[in-house]
Description:
Oligomer: single chain
Low-confidence stretches: none
Helix content: 25-40%
Mean pLDDT: 95
Number of helices: 14
Amino acid sequence: MFKKILIANRGEIALRVIRTCKEMGIKTVAVYSTADKDSLHVRFADEAVCIGPPSGSASYLNIPNIIAAAEITNADAIHPGYGFLSENAKFSKICAENGIKFIGPAPEMIEKMGDKATAKATMIQAGVPCIPGSEGLLDSYEQAEKLAGEIGYPVMLKATAGGGGKGMRAVWKKEDLRKAWDSAKQEAGAAFGNDGMYMEKLIEEPRHIEIQVVGDSNGKACHLSERDCSIQRRHQKLTEETPSPFMTKELRDKMGKAAIKAAEFINYEGAGTVEFLVDKHRNFYFMEMNTRIQVEHPITEQVIDYDLIREQIKVAAGIPISGKNYEPQLHSIECRINAEDPENGFRPSPGTITTFHAPGGHGVRLDTHVYAGYTIPPYYDSMIAKLITTAQTREEAIDKMRRALDEFVIEGVKTTIPFHRALMDHEDYIAGNYTTKFMEDFKM
């Protein structure tokens, strides 16, 4: 087992990893930018190293500085959290070259699944259901036009290096394809330095349902059931739940087997998520694989009583998994609390928190790194907390979330607490009747 782990991340996920490491008797090293010197992950780690100025590119994405921090503190492993360098094959490779264990998959696994076009081709080989579309990158607009005619409109153009909805365009008719092609390529090139595009059939009335998997160094994988992530705004998840209100036992079995097939085909090591789009007829199609821990991992932990960070660390240390597949025994909902103003287009709201009161009670979990007096920097993602409620039934989990949101007080900045409170009273949400298009018509 590792003696000391450096956490190459910030905020609540860094604190989350530190907590499990402490429980396992493993020393921790926090890294931080100058903007994060007062963050709780810095305070609660055993050691802390400043790795640069506020911007992510100069700090949390600065590989030489992170490796240097690991070397001077004698860390024997690095946990990347999510975002930043968590799916960076180059970083995984450099860790290995420096004798530091990257707590995550090997570089070749990240490369296979990190690029969406390559991932789709790999999954077709593995026999996992995929959305009809291009078999690789599109060479030209003319090829895109021909393929769209073959698979039929509507279609979805996607950037191969995409994320956060950038470089994605839905096209409903032939006349709109050229404009969508040009704008998607331009946006993808500016955002990722890669304007490669592929095309898929647009799935109507889709739900975004993902399967949590864990694989070990022996090539064995298991699944830990599903999470429904369909409540999204601009392809960014707002709330998640497990089990999905759309799920059946038969569908869970089929999707679980497909996810295991995907993980074992590439000899996947670590915690990962196989993401699917599910249509209204409960046909499911592979969308992508996230080769890291997910923001929404706590709801899976809650319904099966399973520490996913602990499992990541154990697998990285060479300990085999049990191989058991899990089904949720309870119901859990997560609301992402962002420093944003939901009444003004979810505009970011950085600043100093003047009052902070955390909700509590039975079945309430709060993952956060903020407190009264904490200044939210403007340089990073606006998520400041994750509020999770767990109960015997979905109805009880919603009731508990309403109560917890009413108790949650954050003053000094705008947050998405009022949005989530309105969501918990929405009749379609209460009925479990929602798709990824839900937010298009949502009114607070």
